[in-house]
Amino acid sequence: WVFTKNAGHIQFTEEQMNWLRMIKDYIATSMNIEKDDFDNAPFVEKGGLMKVWNIFGDQLEEIVEELNVELIA
Length: 73
Hints:
Layout: H1 2-7, H2 14-30, H3 48-56, H4 60-72
Helix pairs in contact: 2-4
């Protein structure tokens, strides 16, 4: 998923990649992620929902949806 996105018009920053790795790990153990989950560990230690929203902006909802589909399929 990341390679496909980076091959297009989206280029993730290092900070975004760190968050994407945390999201991937969370989905691997929890089977999905919702916006409310960003107020729980491990995300809250890094700034929680407000921080991830500042990093991804309007793309956050789309990213969460896509990762839930891609990583569970």
